[in-house]
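User: I'm putting together notes for a lab meeting next week and I want to include a structural view of one of the chains we've been expressing. I don't have a solved structure, so I'd like a prediction I can at least talk through. The sequence is below, exactly as it appears in our construct file.
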Amino acid sequence: MNPRYRRLLIPGLLTALVVVVVVAALTDSSEAAVASEATEVSRFLDPDITESSGLAVSPLDPDLVHTVNDSGSAPVVFTVRLSTGETVGRTTLDGVAWRDPEALAVGPDGTLWVADTGDNLAARDDTALYVLPEPAGGDDRVTPTVFPVSFAGGPRDVEALLVDPTGGPVHLVTKGLLGGEVFRLPADLTPGATHRAEPVGVAMPGLVTDAAFHPDGERLVVRTYGSALLYDRDFVRLGAVELPFQEQGETIAVEATGTYLVGSEGTGSALTRVPAIAPEADDARSGDAPRVGAADGATVDAPEDTDGVDPSVVIGVLAALGVILVGLLVVRGRRRP
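Assistant: Thanks for the context. Below is the predicted structure for the 337-residue chain, given as structure tokens.
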């Protein structure tokens, strides 16, 4: 290839990819009503919380939430007073050198799960789930239980963890640019043993950044940079809502009342409460859009087109593509003599 054309190849491909991904993201947020009455609850006051990438509400105290920082961070879970944004506890995970923690979930047995599964370049062989007793506040050090995870078909970038409050299998949702997949882990997990997650044949929107079960285990919510989508436990889509603009919306958690808390990366980022998603009427979900199979053989409506570009979607796309570009440039640099 002509060197001049070679220099233009990566920028050209990335430009084309931006267009494709934005169009796909718009499609995935179709029929989503704008979130009304979204209210800022508080902001993280701790200057050490700079890249909140996972969020979970304590079932023991609805005014406590847990969060972790993104890649390159110390293995610390922050426990925060929701009403004030004040950090009330830090739990250090001994013996852990995580690389890219992306999601949190509270288990049915009083545990907190941390998913170290971020993998922007789909190249990791050390993704894992860490399980510890749910922190109640105060500073502590714990040695977590470790469940190494692999994925059928090779590494995946995963930012969404679903721990079933009724005790069912753990699910993971990939963060594909044009669409995600749902993977399921074995029902019985052995500490220290690598468990392979298998696809369940359920399609998800692109750029999924988090997910969470409702406390009753009958429904779950999946978020992207610009929208939240409601599903039943068999991954049949029930409704959707556009989320308020956030700099880089990474997290979602479900409160006991069914409302959602959504958060973003960034120092002093806000925790915003969003009303529960109202399920759409059956006729609103039974149009001519193609459908894909759910985990139990049910069907999920594929979204239709929508108008307008959510700025948070564009920011998310650019952030994801920026990471890919850096990775490509690093690889290219290593190949040079």
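A couple of points you could mention at the meeting. The mean pLDDT is 83. The radius of gyration is 19 Å.

User: Perfect, that's what I needed.
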